[in-house]
Every structure is written in structure tokens, then in C-alpha cells.
Amino acid sequence: MDTATAQGPITVYGATGYTGRLIAAELTRREAQFVIAGRSQEKLDALADRLVADGGHPEIAAIPTSDSRSLRDLFSRSGAVIACAGPFTLHGEPVLTAAIETGTPYVDTTGEQGFIRGAFENWGVRASAAGIPVIPAMGFDYVPGDLLAALTAEALGPEADIDRVRLAYHAPFQPTRGTMRSALEMIKGGDLEWRDGTLRPASQSISRPDFDFGGELGTQAMMHYPAGEHITVPRHLSPRTVETSLTIASFAPGRAGRAMPVAGRALGLAMRTPMRKLVSKAISALPEGADEQGRTETRFTIGCEVTSRRETAEGRLTGTDVYGLTAAMIVEAAIRATRGEIRGEGVLAPAQAFDPADFLGEFARFEIDWTVGPAR
């Protein structure tokens, strides 16, 4: 057995969604004790049947997020909680609240900047008082970027006065319906960026400066990405500014990318109107997400530049299968939590909770590779 959970099984809330099923499969692969939880008994039963066929033995708990007492009862006998029922700005708070109230280590898959910020600002003191780690956004969206920023900064030395951290993502993958719904929450606007040593309203211009990834990718046109690193990176580094962006080619390769700035602005405005419901219905008609072959055929690259007043260091991280990687990372984090192997208590950024090189080294099967060095 991969892990002994003396404190109790790992509970996956939102287990029947696309990412939740991958997490349950990863827990089965790791031979961990776990509970699959969510609102629908029928869906949980169907998932349990598939997991049993693959050698898993999950418990089942059908509990709506509105039933706070049952959530607390479940979490009080859990070694850790993995939350993956989104959008988190709509459904995440009851699960986080119950975990903190029961003193249960908590990790989640959110990619929503507002929820990440709320976890740090609204729950940090309570999580510290409970003596538990709470690590939001424990997926592909921000874990590799946050860890890469820490590794890149190390190249400048411990005394470096960091001026800017710039992170750029190239991730041409097929998003799930859940990811698209979370994206709708993100593009409504109102996101923040770390600028001049504090969080300030982000520019809502879609375009961002080009980024040179080097190698075959070369210089890419970039777009606005309301990323979690504006919240997490300043927790372990002291930059004056954090900048994040996503390649236009991640969404619209070739000439289609030229329309992205206009389309993005229009969609962001639409999400503040009744059009939001129509867009949500359209998402429901789409495929739930890529199959395993589709996931593993796509590769991602994350670029990082950390600049001090004297020099710049560069980092690059590559890999494959962003959803499979998310499942593996969050399961690894939950298992470490049950073993008491998280660095620190309270709400933590990934680079606070884990040694970056050690943690990334666990995921060779996703072809994770990174390099850090002086600027070219």
C-alpha cells in the first residue's frame, strides 16, 4: 500500500466530475484509502463500480454542500480533503469551511483567482489556529508555475532584490466543461495583479507583451491570464511586480488568434449579463473533456523570468497531460498531508508547502522537465 492513513481516508468531494474521476483513479493507483463524495448517490455508485473493477475500494458519501453537519461528520474522520467541485466561487466555500472547522488538511483544484485570494485572506488565521495546511489551487494551473518561480529566483541568490517575476503559459489542451465554467467566472473581470508591492486591479486589456519561450516555440503573442501566482508568489518571494500571461495559440492557433482580443472582451462583458446562462447551456452540450490519448498527446511549456536590479534568471518547465498531472499532484499533496509532511500550517502557496525540486521530481511519468539559468 502506497500510504497508511492512520488519521483516516482521503475524502474527494466532487469525485464524479471529470477531474474528480481522475483523482479517484489516481488514489486507486496509489492504493490509498479514500472516500468518494458529492451530491448524487447514483453517480457515486456508478463511479464506485468502475473503481472496484480497477481494484479500488472506495467508501461512498452522498452529501450536498448545503448539509454542513454531514460534511463535518465526514471530514472529522478523514485524513485529508480534496475538493474538486467547481466553480469554486459558487460551490467551494462550504467544503473549505467544514475542513477547517474539523481540523482536516485541505487541498483543492480551483483555478479561480478570487477563491484563492479568499482562502488566504479570509481563512488563513483560522487554518493556522486549527494547526492544518490548506493549499488551494493544487493543480496544473498554478503549482508548476509557482514552484518554477521559486526555483528560478534561487538562481539569483538569497540576497537578490527581486523586481519582477514574469510567468508565461503555453498550454494547448482541450478544456473540460468544468474548466470552461470556471473560466467564465474568471473572465468577468475584477481580477487583481501584484504590482508595486501590493494587489491592484488588473488591466482588462486582453493583449499582453510577447514572450520568448526559446526553442521551437520561440516568441509568442500573449493574452491576459488572471492567474493565481499574483496571490501565491508574493507569499514566498518579495517581488515588486508579478506578470502572468497565456499564449494566444493555446486557444486559437494561427490566424484565428488575431480575433482573440476582441472575442475575449466581448465574452467578458457578456458574462455580466443574462447571456451567461446561454453560454453555460452551450458548454453543457460540449464533450466533457479529452480522453487519455488526447490528454497525453498535448504538451505544455511554462516560461519564467525573475529579474533583480542587477540580473535576470530564466526558467522553463515542460510536460504533458495537464489533467492527469493535476490528479497526480493533488493526490501526492493529500498523501503528504496525511503523513504530516507539509511544510507549515495555515493557507500555503505550493512553494511554501513543498520543496520545489523534490515535489516536481515525483512526476516523471508526465515528462516533467525543467531548466533554470542566467538569461540568454
Give a structural overview.
This protein has 376 residues and is an alpha/beta fold. The protein folds into two domains: 10-139 and 324-358, 3-Layer(aba) Sandwich (Rossmann fold); 143-320, Dihydrodipicolinate Reductase, domain 2, CATH 3.30.360. 39% of the residues lie in helices and 23% in strands. It has 15 helices and 16 strands. It has helices spanning 18-29, 41-53, 68-76, 88-91, 93-101, 113-130, 143-154, 177-186, 229-236, 260-270, 275-284, 292-297, 322-338, 350-353, 356-360, and strands at 10-13, 34-38, 59-62, 80-83, 106-108, 133-135, 162-170, 192-195, 198-201, 207-212, 219-224, 241-247, 299-308, 312-320, 346-347, 369-374. The strands form three sheets. The protein has a seven-stranded parallel sheet with strand order 3-2-1-4-5-6-15, with helices on both faces. It has a seven-stranded mixed sheet with strand order 10-11-12-7-13-14-16. A two-stranded antiparallel sheet has the order 8-9. Helix 1 (18-29) packs across helix 13 and helix 3 (68-76) crosses helix 5.
Q: Count the strands?
A: 16
Let me know the largest β-sheet: 7 strands, parallel
N→C terminal distance: 46 Å
Number of domains: 2
So, the CATH homologous superfamily of the largest domain? Answer: Dihydrodipicolinate Reductase, domain 2
Helicity level, as a percent range? 25-40%
Question: What name is given to the CATH topology of the largest domain?
Answer: Dihydrodipicolinate Reductase, domain 2
Sheet-strand content, in percent, reads: 15-25%
Rg of Cα set: 20 Å
Provide mean pLDDT, rounded: 87
